[in-house]
Amino acid sequence: MYDWEDKPELNITPLVDVMLVLLAILMVIAPNIIYEEHIKLPQGSMSQQLSKISPVHISIDKELNVKINKDNYQLHEFMDNFFLYSKKLDLKATVLISADKTLDYGVVMSVLAAVKQAGFSEVSLATNG
Fold first, then answer.
1. The whole model's pTM is what?
2. What angle do CA 80, 81, 83 make, to 5 degrees?
3. Residue % of the chain over a pLDDT of 70
4. E strands within 3-70?
């Protein structure tokens, strides 16, 4: 008969042995597993090429001479002439304005206003950094 006073014992040694063998197998095989998923990517359109738009450089010196790329103007002539000059430029181009630091703030802002009125939206003020 069964003795109620005996307590059963759990022997975990075989369980640990099996787990160590499985761990060793996993450690040997895992670096050799290569998982690869094939993805079909859409084709890009080759007909539409992005063109690089050259920026427009405007510089103002302390004598109030305004230089647009390679053309020179006086400040009082600049407002009207820039509107005509901008007709041959791309309005999506970036305009970079650089001015002498001794100039009045209003002079630079009047040039900036003329550039904005001509239709340019990307305007940057250059600084010495």
1. 0.57
2. 70
3. 90
4. 56-60, 65-68
